[in-house]
Fold:
Amino acid sequence: MEFKLFGTRFSISFGFFAVVAWYVLYGYSGGGLAVLTAVALHECGHLLMMWLAGVKIPAVEFCPFGIRLERQTLLPVAKETAVYLGGVLANAVCLCCWVPWYGWDAFSQAHLGLLLFNLLPVGRLDGGQLLRLALFRLDPVTAQQIQWLVGFLGLAPLFAAGFWMLWRGNVSLLLTVVYLAATMGR
Structure:
């Protein structure tokens, strides 16, 4: 599905709709809406940081695990870091504002889970991109080898946890880890 709004082309993939349907239908204890809200606010954090950095965005693609932005502006490392931190900072702000008033409910758990998940130093996740930025001064081959090793070490225990959850009847984590592993080299 594609449409244009304010000069920006938006496209929404089938995978995005599949993940949304998965969370709405199978969200933990009715927390699907909380997860979707946390994801939307996370992505708004990235967009806000991009806007503050003066980035023009000609195209936005909604993918299974977030959004992919086409942009024409290359940013210095510090601003690029701020853009990648924008999502987790949005989740952290929501946690800090929500928990004192409402406690640890599905909304706060969704924000904490998304914050921690996105900080994983794997592939296209925010943590993976932050690791890539941290290694930018190294030669590309060495940087890629370090990224792969760190990603592997981060995903190995999650694979084990995914199989344990599968044994208990929940396939969500295993599918997520397989997806992350498949996107590590990209």
Residues 140-167 form the longest helix (28 residues). The radius of gyration is 17 Å. The mean pLDDT is 85. Residues 10 and 44 are 15 Å apart (CA to CA).
